[in-house]
Specification:
mainly alpha; Sulf_transp_TsuA/YedE; 8 helices; disordered C terminus; membrane
């Protein structure tokens, strides 16, 4: 794929992703923190839906020979340590790498500092990566997929994963309907009774 084709496709995908991210309210700091505190499951539902959709699309494209699989190396220690660091950062900042720009666009000025911190961390990691590869963090089984571990064709493993995630999504939605978590309670304060009156607006005296 040439650069002149890849850039417009990337921009179009970014616009669609940003639009859905805003409509799903997943960029809201309260929603993100609520997910990390297991009080809100809107973020988890959206991410699981994205993984299930991506698995089906990739299985179809790979089965038709349009795209080739490019799995990353399975580095278990690095995944655990990196996941913990990322999770702690998300809980403290109320943002993740995919939502920072959406927060800036929505007017969250503190998200600018999150973006700067993320870029600084990426630059730091790029310099530290050669050394990290020599530690226990660089040990793993190489490039492998769940389909390889199960000994099944990729398309069947991907469709099986998608079916499992859809079942989990249905269960989550029956347990915590999205309408109960989005709307008036989009700031993540899910424990406010529906019949409680809104807080009065305080207007400074002139």
């Amino acid at each position: 794929m040439s650069l002149f084709v890849a850039v417009p496709i990337g921009l179009a995908m970014g616009v669609v992703f940003g639009f859905l991210l805003e409509k799903g309210r997943v960029f809201e700091p309260g929603i993100i923190v609520g997910q990390m505190q297991l009080r809100s499951f809107v973020m988890l539902k959206m991410f699981l839906a994205a993984v299930a959709t991506g698995a089906v699309v990739l299985a179809a494209l790979n089965g038709l020979g349009i795209v080739k699989l490019q799995p990353k190396a399975a580095l278990y220690a690095a995944d655990v340590v990196g996941g913990l660091i990322l999770g702690i950062g998300i809980a403290l900042a109320g943002a993740c790498p995919g939502t920072t720009l959406a927060q800036i666009g929505a007017g969250y000025r503190d998200a600018i500092f999150t973006l700067i911190g993320g870029l600084a961390g990426a630059v730091t990691f790029s310099y530290a990566e050669p050394w990290l590869k020599t530690t226990f963090l660089g040990q793993g089984q190489g490039k492998i997929t769940f389909a390889d571990l199960l000994g099944v064709p990729y398309w069947s493993g991907a469709l099986g994963l998608a079916a499992t995630l859809i079942a989990v999504l249905i269960g989550l939605e029956l347990w915590r309907p999205w309408r109960a978590e989005i709307g008036r309670n989009a700031d993540g304060d899910l424990d406010v009774p529906a019949d409680r009156p809104a807080r009065p607006r305080i207007v400074p005296a002139e």
